[in-house]
Amino acid sequence: MKLYTRTGDSGDTSVKGGRVRKDDSRVEAYGTVDELNSFVGQAAAIAVRDGLSELAAELTEIQQELFDCGSDLAFADPSGRDLKLTDASALRLESWIDVHTAASPEIKRFILPGGSEVSAMLHVCRTVCRRAERRIVTLAAEVPVHPPVSTYMNRLSDYFFAAARFANVKLGIPDTEYIRSADVFRTKSND
User: Fold this and answer.
1) Family per UniProt (predicted)?
2) Rounded distance, CA 151 to CA 19, Å?
């Protein structure tokens, strides 16, 4: 099998159900999800190296779901299709967020991305995820988007934040607070 087809040399590409320009909003959306998936793979590799196998397993599952998101976004017309992502995926992310948040110190101020290498990479994932989400919002303003994809991507950026903090805790590295930050995060006991 050859990796090159030459069919995109003129600036268009195939989606499920047709062809579009390579700068089409749909291609921008699933292309950014694919970019995110590559960074998640890097974060998983670092997590394995650092002995965070449970975190690496979560990230590998997220990579599978990001492929599902990309697949669902690639339909020229998603109506009436068997789409892959379900609401259960976002609910599982919420449970992981809760576990990682409970294991991390209380947060009151903004924190700087970093600490450990894996935490820094998870913050890169968080910011690329936010960009992917913005691309999906743009696409959804033009054409229908499978709703679980939007929900999942919104929840996923929160997951990366919680996982980055959790990784630092597991590796014994404190978060670095943004020194000019006011106390912006409040718990119910502080209200």
Assistant:
1) Belongs to the Cob(I)alamin adenosyltransferase family.
2) 27
Q: Alpha helix locations (H) across the chain?
A: 25-49, 53-73, 87-102, 117-142, 147-170
The predicted model gives 16-25 an average pLDDT of 67
Q: What is the pTM of this model?
A: 0.90
Could you tell me the two tokens for 50? 């650092």
- The tokens for 20 are 């579009």
Residue 167 contacts residue 92 (beta carbons within 8 Å): no
Both structure tokens of 6? 């030459």
pLDDT band at 190 (very low <50, low <70, confident <90, very high): very low
Summarize pLDDT for 58-108 with one digit per residue, the tens.
999 999 999 999 999 988 776 767 789 999 999 999 999 999 999 999 989
Q: State residue 20 phi and psi, 5-degree precision.
A: -140, 165
Query: Does domain 18-190 match CATH 1.20.1200.10?
Result: yes
